[in-house]
Amino acid sequence: MLAGYAVQVEHSRGRRFPEPPHLYRNDYQRDRDRVIHARAFRRLEDKTQVFTRRYSDHFRNRLTHTIEVAQITRTVAGALALNVDLAEVLALVHDLGHPPFGHAGEKALDAAMREHGLFFDHNLHALRIVEDFEQRYAAFRGLNLTFEVREGIIKHSRDYDAAKHPELAEYLLDQRPPLEAQLVDLTDEIGYNTADLDDGYEAHLLTLDQIRAGVPVFESFFCEVEQIYPEAPEKLQFNEALKGVFNRLAGDLITYTQARLIQAGIETLADVRLHPERLAAFSPEVEAERKQIKDFLYENLYYSVSLAGEKDDAERIVTELFTFWMNNPSALPHYYRKKAEQESVPRVVCDYLAGMTDHFIIEQYEKHCGGT
Ligand code: MG
Q1: What torsion, rounded to 10 degrees, do the Cα atoms 236, 241, 244, 245 define?
Q2: How remote is the CA of residue 187 from the centroid of ligand 1, in Å?
Q3: Contact between 61 and 44 (Cβ < 8 Å)
Q4: 54: pLDDT strictly greater than 70
Q5: Is residue 337 classed as helix, strand or coil in its secondary structure?
Q6: Are 254 and 230 in contact (CB under 8 A)?
Q7: To 10 degrees, the CA torsion angle through 153, 154, 155, 161?
Q8: Contact 315, 110 (CB under 8 A)
Q9: In this predicted model, what pLDDT tens digit does every residue of 191-239 receive, in sequence order?
Q10: Average pLDDT taken over every residue of the chain
Q11: pLDDT above 90 covers what percent of the chain?
């Protein structure tokens, strides 16, 4: 039932270490299950998506965000007759490399690394997690994921310059990723743009009036909802309007991508890979709406005064702990001290910090840097 341009599991370039086929699951289903059973996946439960402080028990964290993205991705991939199993693994793994404290933590970690002429990139880190840090099998290091999953980890959200990243040469950097990977960057956007409006509203960091005034697409759905359910409680009217936005984004991604595939005469996976640009996209009209939501969230939520304190704390904790272990590498746990014999100390400290949950990094900060 798959489209000609879908990835077919039978044509996978396979695993680094060949393994016999499984009786009940194909290779991408096995990869999905390997990701779900990874320690790094479980740690997403205690990693900030947007809010470090839990304003309520209903808030998204990086794990629930990931599950939501997987849900959207399955639907969109299925509607486009793509390989749903592969798309699902790529969604489940897409945030695996994120450090604690969301974007603030990532920024601080990258800044600390740049002092040593290095950098931090969450996609590259995710690849290191699945290739090296996860140790579950006696026969090999890492999760031994298929080529297409590793390629998608690297290529779903951005293009890497082959000249600057010779270590990624095997991932066909001169070609576009399959549609299953291209989708994930956009389903991720659908997921967090709608979820952050929801969480921001629930936290009283955003008011309904503010959202109605700042997000025209939300406003148009809200007006419809008010007509249909004039007596409904505000929160349910809000939910219905947000559902409208959500379905509009996801539906447009499906129909516009489909139209682009037809227009570009895409029939095979090779056509997708060799096309000069990515094919999965929102239509120009919906793309403008998506950008309006995102700009609104940046201005009113991510960079809001209410969250500034959390972000400062996050950056201070990451930066001071990084400095602490740079100055005291002997205070690193045994595993990381051993690694420092083969790799540079900043890289090892970065790997240690990047893997931490919000809870654990605060504990470490209190232990080594004398409290928050
Ligand atoms: Mg994400």
Answers
A1: -130
A2: 9
A3: yes
A4: no
A5: helix
A6: no
A7: 180
A8: no
A9: 999 999 999 999 999 999 999 999 999 999 999 999 999 999 999 999 9
A10: 95
A11: 90
Pairwise CA distance, residues 272 & 266, whole Å: 7
Distance CA 156, CA 35 (A): 17
155/183 Cα distance (integer angstroms): 11
- What is the number of other CB atoms lying within 10 angstroms of the CB of residue 252? 20
Distance from the alpha carbon of residue 157 to the mean position of ligand 1, in angstroms: 10
Answer for the pair 291, 306: CB distance below 8 angstroms, yes or no: no
Q: Which residue stretches of 203-268 are H helix?
A: 208-214, 216-228, 234-263
- CB-hemisphere CA count at 13 Å for 12? 24
Q: What 3-state DSSP class applies to 60?
A: coil
Q: CB-based contacts of 146: which residues, under 8 Å, 6+ apart? A: 12, 13, 14, 15, 27, 28, 31
Instruction: Show Cβ contacts of residue 325 under 8 Å, excluding neighbours closer than 6 positions.
Output: 331, 332, 345, 349, 352, 353
Decide yes or no: CATH 1.10.3210.10 for domain 9-14+24-99+119-307: yes
pLDDT digits (tens, 9 = 90+) for 166-188: 999 999 999 999 999 999 999 99
For the chain, the first-to-last Cα distance in angstroms comes to 55
- Give 341 Cα–ligand 1 centroid separation in angstroms: 33
How close is the Cα of 323 to the center of ligand 1, in Å? 28
Q: What are phi and psi of 196, to 5 degrees?
A: -70, -30
Other beta carbons within 10 Å of 101? 26
CA 83, CA 124: separation in Å to the nearest integer?
24
CA of 66 to the centre of ligand 1 (A): 6
Q: Return the DSSP state at 301.
A: I
